[in-house]
Design a protein that fits this description.
alpha/beta; 485 residues; Rossmann fold; 17 strands; binds adenosine-5'-diphosphate-glucose; nine-stranded mixed β-sheet; globular
Length: 485
Protein backbone atom coordinates (compact mmCIF):
# COMPACT_ATOMS: atom_id res chain seq x y z
CA UNK A 1 0.00 0.00 0.00
CA UNK A 2 1.38 3.43 -0.93
CA UNK A 3 1.88 6.00 1.80
CA UNK A 4 -1.32 7.87 2.55
CA UNK A 5 -1.24 11.63 3.00
CA UNK A 6 -4.52 13.11 4.17
CA UNK A 7 -4.93 16.84 3.79
CA UNK A 8 -7.76 18.84 5.32
CA UNK A 9 -8.16 22.39 6.49
CA UNK A 10 -8.48 21.47 10.16
CA UNK A 11 -6.55 18.93 12.16
CA UNK A 12 -8.39 16.73 14.66
CA UNK A 13 -7.64 19.17 17.48
CA UNK A 14 -7.58 22.91 17.98
CA UNK A 15 -4.82 24.83 19.76
CA UNK A 16 -6.05 27.85 21.71
CA UNK A 17 -3.99 30.50 23.39
CA UNK A 18 -5.10 31.20 26.96
CA UNK A 19 -2.35 33.65 27.84
CA UNK A 20 1.33 34.09 27.24
CA UNK A 21 2.78 30.63 26.55
CA UNK A 22 -0.39 28.98 27.82
CA UNK A 23 -2.22 26.75 25.39
CA UNK A 24 -5.21 24.46 25.49
CA UNK A 25 -5.82 21.55 23.14
CA UNK A 26 -9.46 20.82 22.33
CA UNK A 27 -10.62 17.93 20.16
CA UNK A 28 -12.21 19.32 16.99
CA UNK A 29 -15.92 18.63 16.51
CA UNK A 30 -17.40 17.82 13.16
CA UNK A 31 -18.02 15.14 10.62
CA UNK A 32 -14.73 15.15 8.74
CA UNK A 33 -12.68 14.57 11.86
CA UNK A 34 -15.10 11.91 13.18
CA UNK A 35 -14.67 10.01 9.92
CA UNK A 36 -11.00 10.42 9.04
CA UNK A 37 -9.42 10.09 12.50
CA UNK A 38 -10.19 6.38 13.04
CA UNK A 39 -8.93 5.60 9.57
CA UNK A 40 -5.52 7.22 10.06
CA UNK A 41 -5.26 5.79 13.54
CA UNK A 42 -5.75 2.32 12.09
CA UNK A 43 -3.61 2.63 8.94
CA UNK A 44 -1.03 5.23 9.86
CA UNK A 45 0.11 7.93 7.43
CA UNK A 46 0.40 11.68 7.49
CA UNK A 47 -2.22 14.33 8.21
CA UNK A 48 -1.56 17.85 6.95
CA UNK A 49 -3.77 20.66 8.24
CA UNK A 50 -4.21 23.86 10.20
CA UNK A 51 -4.32 23.57 14.01
CA UNK A 52 -6.95 26.29 14.30
CA UNK A 53 -4.88 29.11 15.74
CA UNK A 54 -3.86 32.17 13.72
CA UNK A 55 -0.17 33.13 13.62
CA UNK A 56 2.89 31.09 14.41
CA UNK A 57 2.37 27.55 15.59
CA UNK A 58 3.76 27.00 19.10
CA UNK A 59 6.26 24.14 18.81
CA UNK A 60 6.02 22.52 22.24
CA UNK A 61 2.18 22.47 22.59
CA UNK A 62 1.89 21.20 19.02
CA UNK A 63 4.35 18.38 19.68
CA UNK A 64 2.49 17.54 22.89
CA UNK A 65 -0.90 17.49 21.11
CA UNK A 66 0.31 15.12 18.41
CA UNK A 67 2.61 12.86 20.42
CA UNK A 68 0.23 9.91 20.68
CA UNK A 69 -1.71 10.43 17.47
CA UNK A 70 -0.48 7.23 15.82
CA UNK A 71 0.27 9.06 12.58
CA UNK A 72 2.47 11.96 11.53
CA UNK A 73 0.93 15.43 11.79
CA UNK A 74 2.20 18.32 9.67
CA UNK A 75 0.89 21.79 10.49
CA UNK A 76 0.11 24.60 8.05
CA UNK A 77 0.16 28.08 9.60
CA UNK A 78 -2.47 30.71 8.75
CA UNK A 79 -2.26 34.41 9.52
CA UNK A 80 -5.23 36.32 10.91
CA UNK A 81 -5.99 37.67 7.43
CA UNK A 82 -5.85 34.15 5.99
CA UNK A 83 -8.22 32.95 8.69
CA UNK A 84 -10.63 35.81 8.06
CA UNK A 85 -10.59 35.75 4.26
CA UNK A 86 -9.86 32.12 3.42
CA UNK A 87 -11.57 30.26 6.26
CA UNK A 88 -14.36 32.53 7.46
CA UNK A 89 -14.53 34.37 4.12
CA UNK A 90 -14.40 32.32 0.94
CA UNK A 91 -14.87 28.90 2.54
CA UNK A 92 -17.63 29.72 4.99
CA UNK A 93 -19.32 32.84 3.62
CA UNK A 94 -19.28 31.83 -0.04
CA UNK A 95 -18.84 28.10 -0.68
CA UNK A 96 -20.58 26.72 2.42
CA UNK A 97 -23.90 28.61 2.02
CA UNK A 98 -23.89 28.31 -1.79
CA UNK A 99 -23.28 24.56 -1.77
CA UNK A 100 -26.11 24.16 0.79
CA UNK A 101 -28.49 25.98 -1.59
CA UNK A 102 -28.56 29.04 0.70
CA UNK A 103 -27.40 31.59 -1.84
CA UNK A 104 -28.93 34.53 0.04
CA UNK A 105 -26.46 33.89 2.85
CA UNK A 106 -23.45 34.33 0.56
CA UNK A 107 -21.04 37.24 0.81
CA UNK A 108 -19.35 37.32 -2.60
CA UNK A 109 -16.56 39.65 -1.46
CA UNK A 110 -14.12 39.70 -4.43
CA UNK A 111 -10.93 39.77 -2.30
CA UNK A 112 -11.75 36.44 -0.62
CA UNK A 113 -10.90 34.42 -3.73
CA UNK A 114 -7.30 35.66 -3.91
CA UNK A 115 -6.68 34.67 -0.30
CA UNK A 116 -8.39 31.31 -0.87
CA UNK A 117 -6.00 30.60 -3.73
CA UNK A 118 -2.97 31.85 -1.77
CA UNK A 119 -3.77 29.59 1.19
CA UNK A 120 -4.40 26.63 -1.11
CA UNK A 121 -0.95 27.35 -2.59
CA UNK A 122 0.50 27.17 0.89
CA UNK A 123 -1.13 23.79 1.51
CA UNK A 124 0.34 22.63 -1.81
CA UNK A 125 3.79 23.78 -0.65
CA UNK A 126 3.39 21.77 2.56
CA UNK A 127 2.41 18.70 0.54
CA UNK A 128 5.29 19.22 -1.86
CA UNK A 129 7.70 19.32 1.08
CA UNK A 130 6.64 15.97 2.49
CA UNK A 131 5.44 14.01 -0.56
CA UNK A 132 7.61 11.18 -1.84
CA UNK A 133 7.37 9.22 -5.07
CA UNK A 134 4.22 7.10 -5.25
CA UNK A 135 2.48 8.69 -2.29
CA UNK A 136 -1.29 8.70 -2.42
CA UNK A 137 -2.64 12.18 -1.71
CA UNK A 138 -6.17 12.52 -0.43
CA UNK A 139 -7.38 16.11 -0.14
CA UNK A 140 -10.58 16.76 1.81
CA UNK A 141 -13.37 19.19 1.45
CA UNK A 142 -14.42 22.55 0.19
CA UNK A 143 -11.64 24.61 1.75
CA UNK A 144 -9.03 22.99 -0.48
CA UNK A 145 -10.59 22.69 -3.92
CA UNK A 146 -7.70 24.58 -5.53
CA UNK A 147 -4.87 22.42 -4.17
CA UNK A 148 -4.89 19.99 -7.13
CA UNK A 149 -4.16 22.81 -9.52
CA UNK A 150 -1.52 24.29 -7.21
CA UNK A 151 0.24 20.90 -7.09
CA UNK A 152 0.18 20.55 -10.85
CA UNK A 153 1.67 24.02 -11.21
CA UNK A 154 4.49 22.87 -8.93
CA UNK A 155 5.04 19.69 -10.96
CA UNK A 156 4.50 17.54 -7.85
CA UNK A 157 1.54 15.62 -9.26
CA UNK A 158 3.67 13.68 -11.76
CA UNK A 159 5.45 11.60 -9.15
CA UNK A 160 2.37 10.71 -7.09
CA UNK A 161 0.36 7.51 -7.32
CA UNK A 162 -2.87 9.43 -6.98
CA UNK A 163 -4.06 12.98 -6.52
CA UNK A 164 -7.56 12.65 -5.17
CA UNK A 165 -10.28 14.73 -3.58
CA UNK A 166 -13.41 14.06 -1.52
CA UNK A 167 -16.14 16.63 -1.02
CA UNK A 168 -17.90 16.20 2.33
CA UNK A 169 -20.63 18.74 1.61
CA UNK A 170 -23.23 18.62 -1.18
CA UNK A 171 -22.48 19.85 -4.70
CA UNK A 172 -25.23 22.23 -5.86
CA UNK A 173 -27.18 22.10 -9.12
CA UNK A 174 -26.12 24.40 -11.95
CA UNK A 175 -28.82 27.04 -11.32
CA UNK A 176 -27.26 27.67 -7.91
CA UNK A 177 -23.60 27.02 -8.76
CA UNK A 178 -23.82 29.51 -11.63
CA UNK A 179 -24.11 32.36 -9.08
CA UNK A 180 -20.46 31.79 -8.15
CA UNK A 181 -18.23 34.47 -9.72
CA UNK A 182 -15.28 32.03 -9.93
CA UNK A 183 -17.31 29.11 -11.28
CA UNK A 184 -15.03 28.33 -14.21
CA UNK A 185 -11.78 28.71 -12.27
CA UNK A 186 -13.07 26.47 -9.53
CA UNK A 187 -14.23 23.71 -11.86
CA UNK A 188 -10.94 23.86 -13.76
CA UNK A 189 -9.11 23.47 -10.44
CA UNK A 190 -11.26 20.48 -9.44
CA UNK A 191 -10.60 18.84 -12.79
CA UNK A 192 -6.90 18.71 -11.92
CA UNK A 193 -7.56 15.81 -9.54
CA UNK A 194 -7.41 12.23 -10.83
CA UNK A 195 -10.35 11.09 -8.72
CA UNK A 196 -13.23 13.16 -7.36
CA UNK A 197 -15.41 11.63 -4.67
CA UNK A 198 -18.85 12.88 -3.65
CA UNK A 199 -21.28 11.75 -0.98
CA UNK A 200 -24.29 10.88 -3.14
CA UNK A 201 -25.39 10.17 -6.69
CA UNK A 202 -27.17 13.51 -6.72
CA UNK A 203 -23.91 15.37 -6.03
CA UNK A 204 -22.17 13.56 -8.89
CA UNK A 205 -25.08 14.41 -11.18
CA UNK A 206 -24.99 18.06 -10.14
CA UNK A 207 -21.23 18.27 -10.65
CA UNK A 208 -21.44 16.75 -14.11
CA UNK A 209 -24.30 19.09 -14.97
CA UNK A 210 -22.11 22.07 -14.04
CA UNK A 211 -19.12 20.73 -15.98
CA UNK A 212 -21.29 20.25 -19.07
CA UNK A 213 -22.59 23.82 -18.88
CA UNK A 214 -19.42 25.64 -17.84
CA UNK A 215 -16.44 23.72 -19.26
CA UNK A 216 -16.95 23.39 -22.98
CA UNK A 217 -13.65 21.54 -23.44
CA UNK A 218 -14.47 18.74 -20.98
CA UNK A 219 -16.12 15.55 -22.21
CA UNK A 220 -18.27 13.36 -20.02
CA UNK A 221 -18.09 9.65 -20.78
CA UNK A 222 -21.24 8.20 -19.21
CA UNK A 223 -20.69 5.06 -17.17
CA UNK A 224 -22.98 3.13 -14.88
CA UNK A 225 -20.96 3.38 -11.70
CA UNK A 226 -17.78 5.42 -11.87
CA UNK A 227 -18.12 8.29 -14.28
CA UNK A 228 -15.27 9.35 -16.50
CA UNK A 229 -14.36 12.83 -17.65
CA UNK A 230 -11.83 13.75 -20.30
CA UNK A 231 -10.22 17.12 -19.91
CA UNK A 232 -7.05 18.55 -21.40
CA UNK A 233 -5.86 15.09 -22.41
CA UNK A 234 -6.34 13.62 -18.96
CA UNK A 235 -8.90 11.25 -17.50
CA UNK A 236 -10.71 12.09 -14.30
CA UNK A 237 -12.80 9.56 -12.46
CA UNK A 238 -15.84 10.55 -10.44
CA UNK A 239 -17.96 8.55 -8.08
CA UNK A 240 -20.21 8.64 -5.06
CA UNK A 241 -18.72 7.24 -1.86
CA UNK A 242 -21.23 7.72 0.99
CA UNK A 243 -19.21 8.29 4.13
CA UNK A 244 -19.87 6.02 7.10
CA UNK A 245 -19.00 5.83 10.78
CA UNK A 246 -16.93 3.50 12.93
CA UNK A 247 -20.00 1.40 13.74
CA UNK A 248 -18.30 -1.11 16.02
CA UNK A 249 -16.73 1.55 18.15
CA UNK A 250 -20.09 3.33 18.68
CA UNK A 251 -21.83 0.03 19.39
CA UNK A 252 -19.11 -1.02 21.86
CA UNK A 253 -19.41 2.35 23.56
CA UNK A 254 -23.19 2.02 23.83
CA UNK A 255 -22.91 -1.41 25.46
CA UNK A 256 -20.34 -0.27 28.04
CA UNK A 257 -21.28 -0.06 31.72
CA UNK A 258 -20.50 3.65 31.93
CA UNK A 259 -22.84 4.53 29.06
CA UNK A 260 -25.53 2.18 30.31
CA UNK A 261 -25.43 3.93 33.67
CA UNK A 262 -25.45 7.41 32.15
CA UNK A 263 -28.32 6.65 29.80
CA UNK A 264 -30.33 5.23 32.70
CA UNK A 265 -29.65 8.39 34.68
CA UNK A 266 -30.83 10.45 31.73
CA UNK A 267 -34.05 8.46 31.45
CA UNK A 268 -34.68 8.59 35.18
CA UNK A 269 -34.71 12.39 35.01
CA UNK A 270 -37.65 12.36 32.59
CA UNK A 271 -39.99 9.65 33.72
CA UNK A 272 -43.08 8.88 31.60
CA UNK A 273 -41.69 10.92 28.73
CA UNK A 274 -40.39 9.89 25.35
CA UNK A 275 -37.09 11.66 24.74
CA UNK A 276 -36.49 13.31 21.38
CA UNK A 277 -32.88 14.15 20.55
CA UNK A 278 -31.38 16.85 18.35
CA UNK A 279 -27.55 16.99 18.15
CA UNK A 280 -25.92 19.48 15.82
CA UNK A 281 -23.01 21.76 15.21
CA UNK A 282 -24.21 25.35 15.40
CA UNK A 283 -25.00 25.89 11.73
CA UNK A 284 -27.90 27.37 9.79
CA UNK A 285 -27.76 24.40 7.38
CA UNK A 286 -28.80 22.05 10.20
CA UNK A 287 -32.39 23.33 10.28
CA UNK A 288 -32.54 23.87 14.05
CA UNK A 289 -35.06 26.77 14.08
CA UNK A 290 -37.32 24.91 11.66
CA UNK A 291 -37.13 21.86 13.92
CA UNK A 292 -38.01 23.92 16.99
CA UNK A 293 -40.94 25.48 15.16
CA UNK A 294 -42.11 21.99 14.17
CA UNK A 295 -41.85 20.81 17.76
CA UNK A 296 -43.87 23.83 18.88
CA UNK A 297 -46.47 23.09 16.22
CA UNK A 298 -46.63 19.45 17.34
CA UNK A 299 -47.28 20.49 20.94
CA UNK A 300 -49.86 23.02 19.77
CA UNK A 301 -51.85 20.70 17.50
CA UNK A 302 -51.35 17.38 19.30
CA UNK A 303 -52.06 17.92 23.02
CA UNK A 304 -51.44 14.23 23.79
CA UNK A 305 -47.73 15.03 23.44
CA UNK A 306 -47.73 17.62 26.22
CA UNK A 307 -46.12 16.30 29.35
CA UNK A 308 -45.15 13.10 27.50
CA UNK A 309 -42.26 14.22 25.32
CA UNK A 310 -39.08 16.19 25.97
CA UNK A 311 -36.83 17.56 23.24
CA UNK A 312 -33.16 17.45 24.22
CA UNK A 313 -31.42 19.82 21.83
CA UNK A 314 -27.63 19.85 22.04
CA UNK A 315 -25.76 22.41 19.94
CA UNK A 316 -21.98 22.40 19.78
CA UNK A 317 -20.54 25.92 19.28
CA UNK A 318 -19.03 26.41 15.84
CA UNK A 319 -17.83 29.37 13.71
CA UNK A 320 -19.26 31.76 16.31
CA UNK A 321 -16.90 34.51 15.06
CA UNK A 322 -19.01 34.81 11.89
CA UNK A 323 -21.79 37.35 12.65
CA UNK A 324 -24.46 35.24 10.96
CA UNK A 325 -23.70 32.33 13.29
CA UNK A 326 -23.97 34.60 16.29
CA UNK A 327 -27.38 35.90 15.15
CA UNK A 328 -28.42 32.36 14.44
CA UNK A 329 -27.63 31.30 17.99
CA UNK A 330 -29.72 34.15 19.34
CA UNK A 331 -32.62 32.96 17.17
CA UNK A 332 -32.37 29.47 18.64
CA UNK A 333 -32.21 30.90 22.18
CA UNK A 334 -35.40 32.90 21.54
CA UNK A 335 -37.29 29.93 20.07
CA UNK A 336 -36.35 27.67 22.98
CA UNK A 337 -37.38 30.38 25.46
CA UNK A 338 -40.64 30.86 23.62
CA UNK A 339 -41.57 27.14 23.67
CA UNK A 340 -40.58 26.67 27.29
CA UNK A 341 -42.32 29.90 28.33
CA UNK A 342 -45.50 28.90 26.54
CA UNK A 343 -45.89 25.20 27.38
CA UNK A 344 -43.94 24.38 30.53
CA UNK A 345 -45.72 23.35 33.71
CA UNK A 346 -44.50 23.07 37.29
CA UNK A 347 -43.08 19.61 36.58
CA UNK A 348 -42.45 19.55 32.82
CA UNK A 349 -40.02 21.54 30.64
CA UNK A 350 -40.60 20.73 26.96
CA UNK A 351 -37.08 21.65 25.68
CA UNK A 352 -33.80 20.87 27.39
CA UNK A 353 -31.25 22.98 25.57
CA UNK A 354 -27.48 22.62 25.88
CA UNK A 355 -25.05 24.87 24.04
CA UNK A 356 -21.87 22.82 24.32
CA UNK A 357 -20.09 19.80 22.92
CA UNK A 358 -20.66 16.46 24.61
CA UNK A 359 -17.80 14.10 25.25
CA UNK A 360 -18.00 10.77 23.48
CA UNK A 361 -19.44 8.92 26.48
CA UNK A 362 -22.12 11.51 27.09
CA UNK A 363 -23.01 11.69 23.39
CA UNK A 364 -23.36 7.90 23.24
CA UNK A 365 -25.48 7.90 26.41
CA UNK A 366 -27.81 10.43 24.76
CA UNK A 367 -28.09 8.32 21.61
CA UNK A 368 -28.78 5.25 23.71
CA UNK A 369 -31.21 6.97 26.06
CA UNK A 370 -33.42 8.87 23.60
CA UNK A 371 -36.43 7.27 21.93
CA UNK A 372 -36.52 9.46 18.85
CA UNK A 373 -33.75 11.23 16.90
CA UNK A 374 -34.82 14.41 15.16
CA UNK A 375 -32.30 15.08 12.37
CA UNK A 376 -33.59 17.69 9.96
CA UNK A 377 -30.85 19.59 8.12
CA UNK A 378 -31.99 21.88 5.30
CA UNK A 379 -29.25 20.18 3.31
CA UNK A 380 -26.33 18.03 4.40
CA UNK A 381 -23.57 16.19 2.57
CA UNK A 382 -24.28 13.07 4.63
CA UNK A 383 -25.07 13.70 8.34
CA UNK A 384 -23.25 11.37 10.65
CA UNK A 385 -25.49 12.04 13.65
CA UNK A 386 -28.25 9.96 12.04
CA UNK A 387 -25.85 7.05 11.57
CA UNK A 388 -24.33 7.35 15.04
CA UNK A 389 -27.82 7.22 16.54
CA UNK A 390 -28.58 3.96 14.71
CA UNK A 391 -25.25 2.41 15.77
CA UNK A 392 -26.01 3.13 19.43
CA UNK A 393 -29.52 1.59 19.36
CA UNK A 394 -28.22 -1.72 20.59
CA UNK A 395 -31.73 -2.92 21.49
CA UNK A 396 -32.81 -2.29 17.89
CA UNK A 397 -35.43 0.25 18.84
CA UNK A 398 -35.73 4.00 18.45
CA UNK A 399 -37.25 6.06 15.66
CA UNK A 400 -35.36 8.35 13.29
CA UNK A 401 -36.98 11.42 11.76
CA UNK A 402 -34.66 12.39 8.92
CA UNK A 403 -34.52 15.21 6.40
CA UNK A 404 -34.94 14.07 2.84
CA UNK A 405 -32.13 16.52 1.96
CA UNK A 406 -29.49 14.83 4.12
CA UNK A 407 -27.16 12.63 2.08
CA UNK A 408 -27.92 9.88 4.62
CA UNK A 409 -31.52 9.75 3.36
CA UNK A 410 -30.37 7.82 0.27
CA UNK A 411 -29.16 4.96 2.50
CA UNK A 412 -31.61 5.18 5.42
CA UNK A 413 -34.90 5.80 3.60
CA UNK A 414 -36.16 2.29 4.24
CA UNK A 415 -36.19 2.81 8.00
CA UNK A 416 -36.40 6.54 8.68
CA UNK A 417 -39.42 8.82 8.65
CA UNK A 418 -38.36 11.13 5.85
CA UNK A 419 -39.48 14.75 6.06
CA UNK A 420 -39.09 17.98 4.16
CA UNK A 421 -37.26 20.25 6.65
CA UNK A 422 -38.95 23.33 5.17
CA UNK A 423 -42.39 21.85 5.92
CA UNK A 424 -42.99 22.57 9.60
CA UNK A 425 -46.39 20.87 9.67
CA UNK A 426 -45.11 17.68 8.07
CA UNK A 427 -42.28 17.53 10.62
CA UNK A 428 -44.76 18.09 13.46
CA UNK A 429 -46.86 15.19 12.19
CA UNK A 430 -43.74 13.04 11.99
CA UNK A 431 -43.12 13.73 15.68
CA UNK A 432 -46.58 12.42 16.47
CA UNK A 433 -46.08 9.41 14.20
CA UNK A 434 -42.77 8.56 15.86
CA UNK A 435 -44.33 9.03 19.31
CA UNK A 436 -47.17 6.63 18.50
CA UNK A 437 -45.06 4.11 16.56
CA UNK A 438 -45.39 0.58 17.89
CA UNK A 439 -42.36 -1.24 19.23
CA UNK A 440 -42.65 -3.80 16.42
CA UNK A 441 -42.51 -1.12 13.75
CA UNK A 442 -39.63 0.71 15.43
CA UNK A 443 -37.67 -2.53 15.59
CA UNK A 444 -38.32 -3.45 11.98
CA UNK A 445 -37.24 0.00 10.80
CA UNK A 446 -34.19 0.21 13.07
CA UNK A 447 -32.98 -3.25 12.06
CA UNK A 448 -32.97 -2.19 8.43
CA UNK A 449 -31.07 1.00 9.17
CA UNK A 450 -28.53 -0.67 11.44
CA UNK A 451 -27.77 -3.24 8.77
CA UNK A 452 -26.86 -0.49 6.30
CA UNK A 453 -24.88 1.59 8.82
CA UNK A 454 -22.97 -1.47 10.03
CA UNK A 455 -22.09 -2.62 6.50
CA UNK A 456 -21.39 0.71 4.89
CA UNK A 457 -19.07 1.89 7.64
CA UNK A 458 -16.18 4.32 7.55
CA UNK A 459 -13.57 1.64 6.83
CA UNK A 460 -15.55 0.47 3.84
CA UNK A 461 -15.80 4.09 2.71
CA UNK A 462 -12.06 4.55 2.84
CA UNK A 463 -11.36 1.15 1.25
CA UNK A 464 -13.70 1.77 -1.64
CA UNK A 465 -12.18 5.19 -2.27
CA UNK A 466 -8.60 3.97 -2.03
CA UNK A 467 -9.40 0.93 -4.17
CA UNK A 468 -10.50 3.15 -7.01
CA UNK A 469 -7.53 5.41 -6.30
CA UNK A 470 -5.14 2.46 -6.54
CA UNK A 471 -6.39 1.68 -10.03
CA UNK A 472 -5.49 5.12 -11.31
CA UNK A 473 -2.70 4.56 -13.77
CA UNK A 474 0.45 6.35 -12.71
CA UNK A 475 1.02 9.14 -15.14
CA UNK A 476 -2.65 9.36 -16.15
CA UNK A 477 -2.25 12.86 -14.85
CA UNK A 478 0.29 13.76 -17.51
CA UNK A 479 -1.26 15.59 -20.46
CA UNK A 480 -1.11 13.19 -23.45
CA UNK A 481 -2.90 15.21 -26.05
CA UNK A 482 -5.05 18.29 -26.15
CA UNK A 483 -7.39 16.82 -28.75
CA UNK A 484 -11.06 16.98 -27.81
CA UNK A 485 -12.33 13.44 -27.29
P1 LIG B 1 -20.76 18.24 9.83
O1 LIG B 1 -21.43 19.39 9.18
O2 LIG B 1 -19.91 18.55 10.99
O3 LIG B 1 -19.88 17.42 8.79
P2 LIG B 1 -22.23 15.75 10.71
O4 LIG B 1 -22.03 14.77 9.62
O5 LIG B 1 -23.56 15.68 11.33
O6 LIG B 1 -21.98 17.25 10.23
O7 LIG B 1 -21.15 15.47 11.80
C1 LIG B 1 -21.16 16.12 13.04
C2 LIG B 1 -20.23 15.38 13.98
O8 LIG B 1 -20.03 16.19 15.13
C3 LIG B 1 -20.81 14.05 14.42
O9 LIG B 1 -19.80 13.08 14.45
C4 LIG B 1 -21.34 14.35 15.83
O10 LIG B 1 -21.23 13.27 16.71
C5 LIG B 1 -20.49 15.50 16.28
N1 LIG B 1 -21.32 16.41 17.09
C6 LIG B 1 -22.33 17.18 16.67
N2 LIG B 1 -22.87 17.85 17.70
C7 LIG B 1 -22.18 17.48 18.79
C8 LIG B 1 -22.25 17.83 20.17
N3 LIG B 1 -23.14 18.70 20.64
N4 LIG B 1 -21.38 17.25 20.99
C9 LIG B 1 -20.46 16.38 20.53
N5 LIG B 1 -20.34 16.02 19.26
C10 LIG B 1 -21.18 16.56 18.40
C11 LIG B 1 -19.53 17.52 7.40
C12 LIG B 1 -20.72 17.60 6.45
C13 LIG B 1 -21.64 16.44 6.67
C14 LIG B 1 -20.88 15.11 6.54
C15 LIG B 1 -19.62 15.13 7.35
C16 LIG B 1 -18.75 13.94 7.06
O11 LIG B 1 -21.41 18.83 6.62
O12 LIG B 1 -22.71 16.46 5.76
O13 LIG B 1 -21.70 14.06 6.99
O14 LIG B 1 -18.84 16.29 7.11
O15 LIG B 1 -18.49 13.82 5.72
Amino acid sequence: MNRLIVVSNRLPFALDSTGEDLWTVTPAAGGLVSAVEPVLRERGGTWIGWPGTAGEIPKAPFAEATRNAGYKVVPVALTETDRDEFYYGYSNEVIWPLFHDLQNFCNFEPGYWQTYKAVNDRFADAIARCAQANDFIWIHDYHLMYVGQALRERGVSQKLSGLTFFLHIPFPPYDIFSKLPQQQRLLRALLQFDLLGFQTRRDVRNFLGCVRRVMSDARVVPRRDLQLLRFEGRQIRLGHFPIGIDFDSFERGAISDAVTRRSQELRARFQDCQLILGVDRLDYSKGIPERLRAYRDALERHPELRGHVVLIQVVVPSRVEIPRYHEFKQRIDRLVGDINGHFSTSNWLPVQYHFRGLDREDLTAHYRGCDIAFVTPLKDGMNLVAKEYCACRINEDGALILSQFAGAAEQLKTGALLVNPYDVEEMADAVLKAFRMTTAERTARMKRMRRVVRQENVFRWVDSFLKVGAKLTVGSSKPRTRTKL
